Amino acid sequence: METVGIVTEYNPFHNGHLYHLNKAKEKTGCKYVVSVMSGNFVQRGEPAILDKWTRAKMAIDNGVDLVFEIPSIYSCQSAEFYAEGSIKLLDGLGFIDSLCFGSECGSIHPLNTISNLLIKEPPAFKDSLKYYLNKGLPFPKARSHALTKYLSKYNLEYDIDSILSNPNNILGIEYLKTLNSIKGNIRPFTIKRIGAHYNSTELDKNISSATAIRKEILHSYDLQNISGFIPNNCYLYIKDFLKKYNNVNSLENYTKIILYLLSTRHNQFLSEIMDIDEGLDNRIIKYLKNYSSIIDFLDNIKTKRYTFTRLQRILIHLLLGIDQYTFKELHKKGPQYLRLLGASKNGLYLLSKNKNSCKLPIITKFADYKKHSSLHLEKMISFDIEATNVYFLGLNSNQYKNNLDFFVSPYIKKECD
Length: 417
Hints:
eight-stranded mixed sheet; 19 helices; 10 strands; Rossmann fold; alpha/beta; 3 domains; two-stranded antiparallel sheet
């Protein structure tokens, strides 16, 4: 095997990511690493703390050879859609040999067992799932209970409920489901996640979670506190970003914009936004007038069914104008392009060597997407343009410029290791 693919956000790039990157090469024996990375908005329903070009530079400077952007319609979706879009991008390159992802369990076998069951959906499992959903449990919890009940007869050595309570395991299962459905040649590997838990909010030894690092930056803007948890070049990139924009991004930066949109849109419009089920639009309107902070607002409308993360994703869909009908139409066709954000010299060689293998058009100069134009490609890429424009509005900076996608070139690192 020569090339390993990884799915990333690098929000921001830290020591845990560097560990995963090096382990991915070691475990697969691959020489090259290709990343598909969330753009300016990420899967948990937030703006990335730093823009996509800065994060692509971090990746390339720390050993990734190629970074491609996950289209915005996929980057803020549930694990199922996020994983499907990401894996189909890697498959679209045509030369990825393996996939390596982090997981809390660190073993591919239990994740494969669960993913295969979810693909087959035997009647007994479906009946259990329906039973738990009818009891009012949110879908993830209902699915976990149904899987545990179905697999209990096999005397497995692992705890299904524990596996499904960890976010990287869940994403891994969805990656495996997609790999199975596309029947490609990408071989999956997983690496046990080390250091702090994904959702940990406290800095912890040498490898802290991205959540804790973001919290520290947003809380104090004192980068000295995080300097031991990120590579030095990433520290310098964050420092330069703060110097340029005097800010980093967060969902709270969009409070006024979101409250305006919510208060001026009728219920019918809200009900059509991606991921909103019947009744949530009324709940949003009911509680809207009581809060001036978007985080306080979300804290008070969340329920077992509508988790904080799901509500955040809904607000990003509102900001970007992603409605259910548009997403379903675009998702039927899948990713339409591979937009390059960064490359090493080795990465450019890899692209040149395999250019005839690619199943999707590769966009390096952004305006050239029009050469590959189709209705679905244009619509999908229009959300990337919108996401960039909205992202920089949130920074509240005098550096704001419109349509930056047309003016910022991919980062190319010339020297080889």
